[in-house]
Amino acid sequence: xxxxxxxxxxxxxxxxxxxxxxxxxxxxxxxxxxxxxxxxxxxxxxxxxxxxxxxxxxxxxxxxxxxxxxxxxxxxxxxxxxxxxxxxxxxxxxxxxxxxxxxxxxxxxxxxxxxxxxxxxxxxxxxxxxxxxxxxxxxxxxxxxxxxxxxxxxxxxxxxxxxxxxxxxxxxxxxxxxxxxxxxxxxxxxxxxxxxxxxxxxxxxxxxxxxxxxxxxxxxxxxxxxxxxxxxxxxxxxxxxxxxxxxxxxxxxxxxxxxxxxxxxxxxxxxxxxxxxxxxxxxxxxxxxxxxxxxxxxxxxxxxxxxxxxxxxxxxxxxxxxxxxxxxxxxxxxxxxxxxxxxxxxxxxxxxxxxxxxxxxxxxxxxxxxxxxxxxxxxxxxxxxxxxxxxxxxxxxxxxxxxxxxxxxxxxxxxxxxxxxxxxxxxxxxxxxxxxxxxxxxxxxxxxxxxxxxxxxxxxxxxxxxxxxxxxxxx
Length: 475
Known about the structure:
By secondary structure, the protein is α+β, with helices and mostly antiparallel strands. Helix content is 43%, strand content 17%. The protein has helices at 7-14, 63-75, 85-104, 111-127, 133-139, 145-171, 177-185, 212-232, 236-243, 247-250, 268-274, 318-336, 342-349, 353-356, 379-385, 428-454, and strands at residues 27-29, 35-38, 47-50, 52-56, 59-62, 194-195, 198-206, 259-260, 286-288, 291-301, 304-312, 371-373, 397-400, 406-417, 420-421, 457-460. Helix 1 packs across helix 16 (428-454) and helix 4 crosses helix 6 (145-171).
């Protein structure tokens, strides 16, 4: 989407996780007994003094916190091109302001949820060092895993508090149809948004069916694992490490990040079984979209459940793959012959339950409607659609599911809207979203200005030259 509405709306909602409705600080801090630490952004082994850069309410920002932020963003693959240290420092100040007032407003954060998220982060970071914890600790300049995890915990808890505070500020912000109309009318015609070409897309998916014999083989094997642990005293962890088809957990003997009742992350079928177990119990085999599992509930700590699992994925034979391909080719022929419309065939035959009851129509996960802007479309989907005319059907396409198993699909473009200047009636939902973003931005700006004035803030002399966009210096 190309447009030049008020720049604040764009920067507030699109500037990476570096987007800043703020900037910097207030009183000069007297430099006291700074601690020497390694500057982890340097490669020369040089050291620098790590002093207090700012105090925001109950929070302290150290000079090294900017370096840590840079490391985290780089580890997450974020681009820092054009981003200054002052902007990063301003983002830290902003987050501490939110976190401080989240605590004042009695916003509660689950420590178990934060530690679970840290576990996931560490696993992701380890993938970049081929599982080598020593390399990871060296990269982050930490002496041991415990101190690294504790620092990650504090960072993530502060970020979560900030996120919940911002959410609380904007949750009750709504826009009326009249406000949307006024917002649109206030945009000069030459500055109105220009929306790119949009497509409505439908698909039919046929998945090779696993034979009942293969399903039973997998179930029987899981039952045998359960029997070996319960009756023969064998290790659940060793069976998971050797036999589980879950690459993310088998290295840890099937152990998963702690599950928390109040913030479930796993699929419903998995949660229902895990939360029904007694401590020390192993479940019967059960199915999810990922395959067949057994769960071992190791310990219950209040709302937190320590679980391990073994996943086995049934194998699909070549004959079953061929049968699925022949089925979808037959469906394509029947649509071409007029026996079914595409929507009727999707309802009748498609194995994708999320789309079949809407005639195969895909829902855009970003906008929750049926329109996909061409320039923002998933590259793989774009490649499948770029040469299709409206209501023509693609050749049979090969795709893969979560386990890497083959599935086949047909796609079609059911409608196409060419690139155009914003039209109030046709693009109402998009314009409403822009109006809501602006109103939320204004609410956050107002809240921030009030809280900066009401909050104890000190900024060190070395950071007072930053060009801040908010009145952190209370001038």
